[in-house]
Amino acid sequence: MKALLATCTFHFLLGIKGTANERYCFLVVGDPQYLAEKSDSPKQLDPYSEQANAGALKLLKSFPGKMIPQKHGGGTVSGNILGLINTGDLIDSADKHGGHYPAMQKFEWERYQADYGLTGKDGRIPFPVYEVHGNHDGPQGDSFIVEDIITRNLKRPGVVNRSPNGLHYSWDWGPLHCINLGIFAGEGEERRKDHHYAPRASLEFLRSDLKEQVGGGRRPIIISFHLHPNCPEYDWPQEDLAAFWEVIKRYNVIALFHGHTHGSPPSRIMWDGEKFGDPLPEGIDVFNPDDIGASKTDQKDPAKGVGLLHGFLYVELINNKGTQNDQLVVRSYASRDNWVSHDWHTTWSRSVEVPDQ
Question: Which one-letter DSSP state was computed for residue 135?
């Protein structure tokens, strides 16, 4: 892995060389955080949450075929987007209790499902959805939203493996093996003493899934979860983070995707198992898609909104003949005004290994 990673530093993309034999394209978003009006029987979202999420859905629906500027590689967005990964915090209120919150949670979750759908044929976007839960969806992984995700996993298109508890799952997009691990990768069902979140046995699933679905091969792998690996130890216990690295370092993991931090615009950082940096001589690339819709009315000034900066990622795995010219291309798309205006922001590319089938 060391030799491979040393050749895989990202660079700004000025053009993609070679002719692609195969192109596998998908979207990564995070933190829509649907927020209902504060009411025992909400009928609408907070106006800024409505603007952000409605604007994002309109953009996602029209995204296939969109022109890509030459400085970002040129061409167009694929008309065959394989799916959308959502890195959690699907709604805003499921980490709160009492008062208006039970009714708000129900309204928010119903709206998320109606908007995003599941299969690409039952929502407002035309491709399948692959979500994980975040802390706002139930920090201990025991909310009705998490139970509904487990139910959704039974019908989610293309799933090849599910954890014993039904929450974590994997699927394939051509040669690419994709794994969703919930809030973070950790051992055991419940949260560790003096720590914050319950991992719901995601690390156990990761170990078994890689062994069963990848084995000793060099299939490219992406892994998604909600928390940033560089978050406080209180959130992602150090022993779990170290164990996670020990599992993935022997495989051909080409990218990690997370949410939670609302970093704007979308960004990338490298991780070598010990430190985070940009660049590092070697390591795995960790992508933050920004949040796609976490806006709300400013409590200090109700005439204004907060959280108006958003973004998401458009990802292409390009498999050329042989393994010398394969590429992972990640382009960010961003807004600074709650999706009133928006455009391409940054593009990264790296050489990866995609074994011929």
Answer: G
Query: 286: which 2 tokens?
Result: 């960790």
Q: Count the residues in the chain.
A: 357
Q: Are 64 and 110 in contact (CB under 8 A)?
A: no
Alpha carbon distance 350, 353 (integer Å): 10
User: Rounded distance, CA 101 to CA 245, Å?
Assistant: 37
Task: Say whether pLDDT at 153 is over 90.
Answer: yes
The dihedral of CA 36, 38, 41, 42: what is its sign? negative
Neighbours of 136 (CB within 10 A): 27
What are the DSSP calls for 175-197, one per residue?
TEEEEE-TT---SSSSPPTT-S-
CB 334 within 8 A of CB 343: yes
Q: How many CB atoms lie within 10 A of CB 55?
A: 20
Cα–Cα distances (Å) from 33 to 42, 67, 207, 262, in that order, read: 16, 28, 30, 11
pTM: 0.94
Q: Name the amino acid, one letter, at 294.
A: A
Query: Among 141, 206, 213, which residue's Cα sits nearest to residue 180?
Result: 206
| Residue 67 structure tokens | 């022109």
What residue ranges do the domains of the chain occupy? 2-158+258-351
Identify whether the C-beta of residue 269 lies closer than 8 Å to the C-beta of residue 286. yes
> What single letter denotes the amino acid at residue 18?
G
In this predicted structure, what is the pLDDT of residue 20?
Answer: 56
| Cα dihedral 350, 354, 356, 357 in deg (nearest 10) | -140
- Structure confidence by residue, pLDDT tens digits, 203-223: 999 999 999 999 999 999 999
Q: Which of 124, 23, 29, 17 is nearest to 81 (CA)?
A: 23
